[in-house]
Design a protein that fits this description.
21% strand; Ribosomal Protein S8, Chain: A, domain 1; 3 helices; alpha+beta; 39% helix; 4 strands; globular
């Protein structure tokens, strides 16, 4: 199964780049009919992960994907599942 991966380590302190990267990967997954996106905010203090989760909880974004899964084995990773 094909999946997309977005590692946010390099842009952790740039809010605009984070938002743009998240929006881009969602659109790419939809356009390419990819069913799984892996997002790596990293472990750190957890603030970046919270920001990413808040992004995906927005009404206009939430309608684009099926479900968000927090990796139980790795605190610094999220999976976004799409239904196409």
């Amino acid at each position: 199964m094909a999946k997309l991966t977005l590692d946010l380590h390099d842009i952790f302190n740039n809010h605009q780049k984070i938002e743009h990267s998240l929006e881009s990967i969602v659109e790419e997954a939809i356009d390419s009919r990819i069913k799984l996106v892996e997002i790596i905010p990293g472990k750190g203090s957890g603030q970046l992960k919270k920001r990413v989760v808040r992004f995906f909880e927005q009404k206009e974004i939430k309608s684009k994907y099926h479900r968000l899964e927090k990796d139980s084995k790795n605190f610094g990773r999220l999976f976004i599942h799409f239904k196409h």
